Structures
1.
Amino acid sequence: MTEAAATESTESRPADAGRRGSTAESAEERVDRWFARRPALALAALLPIGAVTPLFPVEVGVATFALGTLVVGMAHGAVDHLVPLRAAPGVSLRRSIAVVSVVYAVLGGAVVAAFFLAPVAAFVGFVALTWLHWGQGDVATLAIASVDHLPTSAERWLALVVRGGLPMGVPLLAHPEEYRLVAEWTVGLFLVDAGAAATAVDPLFTPAVRAAVGAGMAAATLASVGLGYRRVRGGGDGSNDGGARRDPAGWRRDVGELAVLWAWFLLAAPVFAIGVYFALWHALRHVGRLVLVDPEAASAASAGDAVGALARFGRDAAPLTLGGFLVVGAVGASVPAGVAAPGDLLAVSLVAIAAMTLPHVVVVAWLDRRQGVWRPGVGA
C-alpha cells in the first residue's frame, strides 16, 4: 500500500482517536467505554469471587474456561479474514480471505506439528506467544484510547511485557501447583507414558524459575509505572516532546488496571482466572478494536448503538467461530493419549487455541503496523 493510501485509512488509526469527537462522544470513546473500561470494572468487582476460587476443584476453572471460550474467546479472532479488507484500502475480499487462510493453514499446522514433535518446547512457546499477544492487545487498547504517557516504542514494549506477563507469569508465582497440572495435562496428550509428563515439565517449575519470573514481573511493572509517572510529571527525555507534561488521567488508568490484574492473578486460581480474563478482558478489547475498523459497526458505535455494533461483529464472526471448535475437535481426535477427562478437554482446547494464536498474532501485528501502534510518538 502507498503512504497516501495508508493516510486515507483514518478510521483504523489509533493515533487519531483522541482528536475526534471534541463536542460529542466519538466511536473510539464509546468502544473504549463498552469494551475496555466497563469490563475492567467488572473484573475488579469479581475479585472477592476470584479470591476463593483456589478452594474450589480445578474442574470449576475448566468449566469457566470452556464457557468463556464458547461465549466470546473463540469469536474474537474469527474476523481475521476481513481485517486486511477493512484496514487497508484497495485490498479485495478475495485477496483478504486468501492471504489470511494461507497464514492460518501454514502457521497453525506448524504449531500442531510442534506439539507432536516437542510438546514441552511447544507448551513453553505457547506461553511465550500468549504473553506477547495479550500484551500486544492491551497496548493497542491504550493507543486507541489516546493514553499518552507511553509515547515511545520502548515504553510501549515495556508495557507489553508487563501486560502480557500478568496473566502468564503471575499465576506461576502464586499458584504453581495448578499451573503445573495444566502443563502436565497438555504435554501428556502427546506422550504414550502417562507418568512422563510430570518429569518432562519439572524444569519449568523449579523455585529458581518462579523466583526469576516473579522478580522480573515486579521490576518491569515498577519500571513501567515509574517511567509513566516521569512523563506525566513533565520529566520526559525530550526525544519527542521536549519533556512536556502529559495528561495524568491515562497514567492513572494504566496503574489502576495493573493493580486489578496483579490482584486478580495473585488471588484467583489460574484456570479460572485465565478463563474469565480471556473472555472479559482480552477478547472484548480486541472485539472493540475490530468494531472500529468495520465502517458499518463503527457507524453504529458512533450512534451509541452497542447492540448493532455487536450484531454486525457476531454475524461476521459466526462461521469461523464454528470453524474454531472444529479445530478443537480435530486436535482431540488426533492426540495419542485421547480425551477422557475434563483436564484432557482443557489441554486439547489449549493446543487448538495455540494453533490459532500464532496466525492470529501475525494478523494483529500487521494491523498494529497499519495503525502505527508501535511507532514512536503515536498517541502523543
Note: Confidence is low (pLDDT under 50) at residues 1-13, 15-23.
2.
Amino acid sequence: MTPHISVVVPMYNEQDVLPLFVQRLRPVLDGLGVAYEVVAVDDGSADQTPVLLQRFLREWPQLRVVRLRANSGHQAAISAGLSNARGDWIATIDADLQDPPEVLGEMLTVGEAQQADVVYGVRTDRSTDSAFKRSTARGFYTLMRAIGGSGLRMDAGDFRLMSRATVDAVNALPEHHRVLRLVIPTLGFPEAEVGYRRDHRAAGTSKYPLHKMLKLTLDSVTGFSLAPLRLATWFGMGGFVLAAALLAYAVISKIAGNPISGWTSTVVIVAGFAALQLLCLGILGEYVGRIYATQQARPTYYVAYDSLLAAPPERRPVADEPAAPARATADVPGPRG
C-alpha cells in the first residue's frame, strides 16, 4: 500500500534541532495507526545535517532523505518534497519545532472528517515571537489581502496538510519562485483550519533573517498580484492633478502681482517625481525579470540523492508500487512543472 500521509520537512543547517525534531515527530506518526513516510529535504546543508539524516535513516524505515545539490531556498525545498511525496495526504512542517508535530493528527482528523483538501495550521498565539516579527507578519498578511488575496488566512504559514489532488495541482503549476502560502488559497479547494500556539525555536538559529523576509515579500507581491504595476497609472494621474494645481496657483499669483520665488519647491517637486519614476521602473523591472526567468525555464533545484531510489527494492518502504523517478526540474513550465 502507498503511504496514507507523507510529511515533507525542508531542512537547512538544522544539526542542533534535528534530534529533538525526530524525537517528537516519530511517536506522533507511529501513533496515527496508518502507513506514512517522512520526506526530509536537505536543502544543501553545510553542517552535520546530512550525517544525522543518514544515521536516522538506518533506524527509521519510514524516513526518506532527498538531498538537493545546492541550497535552493525554503520554498524550492518544499516544492521538491511535494514533487516526490507519495501519500494520499501530504503535510509540510519546518524542523525548528515552532510548529508542533503533535497537531498533525488533529489536522488529519479534521481533513478527513470535513472532506477538506487543505487544512491550515493557524497561529492563534504568537506571544513567543518578538514584537518586530509579529508586526511585520501582520503587515505582510494585511498587504497581501489588500492587493487581492482575500482567501489568504491570517497567521497561516507553511504548516499545512493537503490532499493528493491539491498537491498534484500545485505540482502542475508552471510558476517560478512561487510562494506556496499564497498559491494554494488561489486554487479554491475546500479548506479548514486548526489553531495552535507557536513555540520558540527549539535549537539552532533562524533561517529567515531580515533580507530573506524582504525577498519573500517581494516574490509574494510580484508573483501574486498586478496591483503594483498600476502604481504608475495612479502616480501619473496624481502628478497631473498636482501640476494643474501648481499651474493655477502660478497664474493667479502672476495676476495678483505676487512674485513667485519657488526655486526650492521646484527642486523638491522635480526630485520627487524623478523618484516616483524610478520606483515605477523598478516595479516594472521586477515583473520583466520574472518573465525572463520563466522564459529561461531553469530548474529551481536539482536532486542529488533520494534514499528511496538508492535503497534496494526489498528494503523500500513501499514495495508494490514503483517509485516515481526523482524530478530535478520541478517548477519548470509545461509537463516538467
Note: The two ends are 27 Å apart (CA to CA).
3.
Amino acid sequence: MKPFLLLTTRPEDDVARAEAASFQRFSGLGHDDLRWVRIEREDAPAIRAEELSGIYLGGSPFTVSDPAETKSPQQIRAERALAAVLDEVMEQDIPFLGACYGIGTLGSHVGATIDRTHGEPLGAVPITLTEAGREDPVVIEAGLPEVFTGLVGHKEAVTALPSHATVLATGEHCPVQMFRVGTRQYATQFHPELDVPAVMERARAYRDHGYFDPGEMEDIFALLGRRTADHPPHLLRAFATVHGRGR
C-alpha cells in the first residue's frame, strides 16, 4: 500500500501533535503509512497520485470566510498551500478526506458558499445520513448507522453546495455535515478524528477562540461527559481501507 498524507494547520505544537496522534489512532495506519506535514510552517510535498493512497486534512483554528485583512501570515500560507494541494487532488482524482476545516477548504475550492450562517457551538449533535450517504462506499465500510452522534464546534459551514457535490449527511442546525465531490473527495463538518475525551482536551486549548462561552466550559463538559460519539472515527479507518486497496 502506498502511504497516506496527513496535512495539518494548527500553530500550537501540543494541539498539532495531539491531532496527528488522533488521526494515527483512528485511521489504524502505522507511522510509515501516514506521513504528517504541518503546512502552516512547512512546504507541502509534491502531490502525485502514483505515490499516495490518499490525503487527510485535519481541523484548524483558521476559518476560510474570515476577511482577508484579518488573516495571519500562517493562515495565508496554509490557505495558499491547500489551494495548490487541492488543485492536484482534483486534477489527479486523489482520495481526500478533510475534517471540519475540510468543509471550508474543499467547499470553497469547488465553489460552495462558506459563511457563518450555520455555525455550531461545541457539543454533540445528531447527524443523519442522506440516501446518497447510505450508499457511499466509505460510509458503508465505516458501518455508520442512519443517525449517529457527531462532535461539532465550528464558526463557519456550507450554506450552499454546487450541483456537482453530493450531501452525504445533514444535521438539524447545519444542513451539510458531510459531502463528497466526485467519488473520492470528502469533507465532514463534524470531527471524525475525535472522541469525547479528545474534544474536551481540544476545547481547553481553544477556550478563548470563540467556539463557546469560556464561563460555560465546565457545564458543557459535564453534558459531553454523558455522551458517546464512537461512530465518526470509523470513517478514518474506512477511508484508509477503501482507498488503500490496490493503490
Note: The longest strand covers residues 120-129.
4.
Amino acid sequence: MALGNIVRKIHFWVGITCGLVASISGLSGAMYVWQPEFSAALNPELLKMKNIDSLEDDVFLKTASSLATTHSDSISKMFLPYREQQTISIEFKNGKTNYYNSENGQFLGEKSASIVFFEDLLKFHRTLFIPKIGKYVTGTSTIVFLLLILLSGIYIWYKTYSSTLKNGFKIKWKSKKKKFNFDLHKVLGVSFFIPLLTISFTGAYFTYNSYYKKALSVLDSRTILKQETQNKNPPSFATILLDSDKSYDLRAIYYLKDANDNYRFRYIESRFKTQGLRKTKELTVSTNLKTISLTDYRNDATSNRLAAQFYPVHTGEIAGLFGRILVFIAGLIPLTLYITGFRIYLSKKRRLRKFPG
C-alpha cells in the first residue's frame, strides 16, 4: 500500500475516534474563553466593584487580613481580586463559597449557579467528567490530534497541492455540496494548522506537565539558584498576608488541608491585566509559618518560566483580545473538520457503492 493511502487511512480512523474528543474539548474550550466576561456580566453583585480603580492594593490586603481573622480555621481557600473578580471570595471547608466587598469586607452573597456552570465547564473541558482517567483521555487525545491528525492532514494537503499551493486555499462557494464540503475541510485545516498545533501542544501540558518540564529542563543552566530560605524567627500569618510586594499582587491563599499540609501564598504580576507573559511568585510556609520554599519568576529556571506561559498561550491571553478571539475561533474548527471529514468519507462510500472497483 502506498504511503499516501496509509496516511489517508490514519487521518480518517484516528480523526473519527480521537478527533471526536478533540472536537468536544475544542468546543468547551471555545466557550470557556469568554468566561471572565460572562461571569462578570451575570454576577455584578458578586464580582464587580464600582470604585475598584481608586482602591490601593493595601486595601485588598487589609480586608483579606480582617476576613482571615474573622473566619480563621473554617477557611479552605481565599481568593483576592483577580481578572473578572474585583471582590474577595472565601471557599470554606464545608464546601460553601462566599463573596465579600474588597474594600470593607461586607458579605455580598454565595457562589451563583452561573459561576458553578463555568467551573464545571472547565472540569468537563479537562476531564469530560470521567473520574480518575478523564484527564488522560483528553490529554492523550490532544497529543494524538497533534501528532497524527494535524500532521497527516497537512501531509495530504501538501501532496495534493504542492505544485499549485494557491489552489489549496481556494473555496468554490457556488460549487456543489460535496465539492464545497471538501474545500471547506481543506482550507480550514491548513489555515488553522498553526493555531491548532499550538493549542494542542499547550493543552496536553495540563495532563503531562511533569514530562514537559523534564523536556524543557535541557534549557536550564547546570547551576540553578535555589529559591529556598529558612526563617529562624518566622513572621505571623497576618504579617505574611499584609506584606506588600511592589512587583507582585497577592492572588490566593491556600490553607491547611490537614496537620501535615502547608500554607501557600500565590502572587501574580498584575491583578487585572490579561495579556503578555505570565509572571508569578509562590510562597510556601509550614504550620509554624517557617518558609519552606519561595519561587519567583524573576529568579526562576528557564524551564519554569516557559512552563508558566502554557496557560496564557493556550487561552490566547498572551496576545490580549486578538489572541482570545483567535483561540475561540480555532476551538470551533476541530468540530467543523470532524463533520466535513465524515461527510467526505460518506460521499466516497456512496461513490464506491455506485461504481465498485
Note: Residues 219-312 form one domain.
